[in-house]
Amino acid sequence: MLKLSRPTSPRAFTLIEVTVVVVILVLLASLTVPRLAGTARKEFDHVVDQVADLLLMYAQRDQLGRGAVGLTRVRNDKEGVDEILLVKLESYEQDERTISQWVADPLTPPVRLPSIVDRNGIIILIEGEPVDLSWAPVTHQIGEDRPTIEITLRSIDGEQKATLLLSPHALAPERIDQGAPVRTPLDLDAAGRSREEW
């Protein structure tokens, strides 16, 4: 007896199999997309924390150091890189005269602003007036009160904005996100609360 074989057709996917694959892909995408969005937020927060640390070092060097210190911004338009750094005034003798110049503080690394930060959205105010730190550093005469420094950073997409406020007698900056204070340091001794129980 002769068996006739039917031609085999390639097996196709059923509607249920396709539906299961689509559901799995949607679930994977829903897990991945928030993580990618969270990464940009974390990177922006990290930069804001670095600038806050730089302001903290500036305040401490200003109050505890002997020489003049300042903040400056270095813009490199060719490479698209901006840095904010702490500088100190160094003097040396040359040909019977004293020469002073601002040099980067070797103990405080500069804050390199990544591409997540809008380079044109950085606003620096000294006593409420906008300044360009690329021309001259923010500084003051020794013995005078430090000016109020306010630095506002904005993300490139405009979604995130943070302002750091360093008042004249504060040792640490206050961070304000979207107009609401987030972290405010409290000096318990100055507030008369050093002996309160926690």
List keywords for this structure.
single chain; 198 residues; alpha+beta; 6-stranded antiparallel β-sheet; 4-stranded antiparallel β-sheet; elongated
Give a quick precis of the structure:
A hairpin with a 2-residue loop joins strand 9 and strand 10. The protein is an alpha+beta fold and 198 residues long. Helix content is 25%, strand content 30%.
Strand order of the largest sheet: 6-5-7-8-9-10
Shape descriptor: elongated
Mean pLDDT: 81
Query: How many β-strands, per DSSP?
Result: 10
Q: What fraction of the residues are assigned to beta strands by DSSP? A: 25-35%
Number of helices: 1
For the biggest sheet, the summary is: 6 strands, antiparallel
Helix content: 25-40%
Gyration radius, rounded? 28 Å
Structural class: alpha+beta
Order of helices and strands: HEEEEEEEEEE
Which spans have pLDDT < 50 for at least 5 consecutive residues? none
End-to-end Cα distance, whole Å, is 96 Å
Task: Provide an overview of this structure.
This protein has 198 residues and is α+β, with helices and mostly antiparallel strands. The protein has a domain at 18-65 and 115-183. It has one helix and ten strands, in the order αββββββββββ. The strands form two sheets. A six-stranded antiparallel beta sheet has the order 6-5-7-8-9-10, covered by helices on one side. Strands 1, 2, 3 and 4 form a four-stranded antiparallel beta sheet that branches. The longest helix is centred in the first third of the chain and has 50 residues, at 15-64. The radius of gyration is 28 Å and the shape is elongated. The termini are far apart. The model has no long low-confidence stretch (mean pLDDT 81).
